[in-house]
Design goal:
This protein is an alpha+beta fold. It has helices spanning 20-33, 36-48, 96-100, 103-131, 136-150, and strands at residues 16-18, 56-64, 67-77, 80-84. A four-stranded mixed β-sheet has the order 1-2-3-4. A hairpin with a 2-residue loop joins β2 and β3 (67-77). It is elongated, with a radius of gyration of 17 Å.
Amino acid sequence: MQVNHYQGGNSTFTGFKFSPVSKERFYKILESTNDPILTNKCRSIIASQKDNPVDIEVTNLNHCFGQIIDNGLEAWINGKYSHDNIGMNELGFISLKSFINDKNTLIEFFEKAARRAEKEFHKAIKKEIKAGNTTPDLQTRRAIEKIDEII
């Protein structure tokens, strides 16, 4: 579920959790790129996770492969390290997309975190249904109510 126009005045979301230091770093990245489209895309992705009970903790990434990183962020989903935004793969090579346009890496960072958190949430629902703690009917009703809230 994606929310394109979140009207809330509160900047504390259920899904994405920023420490004050990482929030400041995120704002500095947005200010340095000076791109309102990028800023709105990031806001939209963050808002899309406001009802997801899976925690996406965003922290600073200060070092990578022994190098100091000035604008690095990393995501932790349910307390486990997930990924970072520096555009490097597991072998230490910079991805072609981030080499061409580093703005893509920030959007991909949030999209990847949102996808992984939603996958974790769906796994949890399946586990609850399998254990008999809830039913597909009840989960469907809850999903319909969430849709009804935004329509």
